[in-house]
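Hi R.,

Here's the chain you asked about this morning:
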Amino acid sequence: MSQRIPSLFIAPSELHGRGVFTGEAIPKGSIIEICPVLVLSSDDLLRIKETMLYDYYFEWGEERSGAALALGFGSIYNHSIAPNAKYMVDFEAQNLEIHCIQDIEAGEEIKFNYNGSPESKELVWFEKEKGSQKR
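And here is the predicted structure, written out as tokens:
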């Protein structure tokens, strides 16, 4: 099942190129979007690392050894260590769910922590790559 709050839109972001924003306030606890995913094979994962899609896939599976591309706006949300949303994976339904973890105002960018936990302060791959332009 795919669903999205109708007021979401993609626009230029001060963080990293483009991002997902909302045109209306979203209350804490809301489901922002349910994104179907395309689960990639291990061969696909090797190939994707050589393309621009490397910056847009999610680790997938119980052991996080696989990969998936989120459809909808799923792969456009930007990373923050001060997120206003979180993502949850549903391996069985092959979905990525974006949940609001604090009230979000109209016009605000929706961000989640790429490490999976909103509390994580661990650097993500592009922060570790000095001078990286990756999102």
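One quick note: The CA atoms of residues 79 and 113 lie 5 Å apart.

Cheers,
M.
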